[in-house]
Amino acid sequence: MRVNNIRLIRRKYFNSHKGQVLKYISKKEKFFKGFGEIYFNRIYNKKIKGWILHKKNTCIFYCVVGVVKFHFIDGLGKEKKIVLKEKSSKIILVPPKIWFSIESKKKSSTVANLISIPHNDKEVIKSEKVKSYTIKN
Question: Model pTM greater than 0.85?
Fold first, then answer.
């Protein structure tokens, strides 16, 4: 899979006199591949989580709190960087076979990650280094 297959999808906020609601995902979405699990990742300032590659899972990311920088690399060495902020009303759809890391740009940030099939250690590859990029904690 290639990084140009990563999609940034706008979501809608619905306003009421009591606050706002953001529809994260619906099973009616054309890009929705199924529900496996949802994780909430908290990342601390200047810390990076990754590198991670899902062999089969599609990931749908949303920034719940803070500001996060996503770094993606595909099997051809092509790169893509996306920054999400809380209340940005955007989600990132990441197909399988793309390496990613997540970095917080605030004191603490939280990212929701909906994966299409339940977690399985054999389905995930983790590394401290991808290409010439090294995770520095």
Answer: yes
Tens of each residue's pLDDT in the chain, 137 residues: 789 999 999 888 888 889 888 878 888 888 888 889 999 999 999 889 989 999 999 999 999 999 999 999 998 889 999 999 998 889 999 999 999 999 999 999 999 999 999 999 999 999 988 877 766 65
**Following DSSP, what letter does each residue of the chain receive, concatenated?**
--GGG-EEEE--EEEETTEEEE----TT-TT-----EEEEEEEEBT-EEEEEEESS--EEEEEEESEEEEEEE-TTS-EEEEEEETT--EEEEE-SS-EEEEEESSSEEEEEEEESS---GGGEEE-SEETTEE---
Please give the residue range of the domain that contains residue 127. Answer: 3-134
Give the number of domains in the chain.
Answer: 1
CATH at residue 33: 2.60.120.10
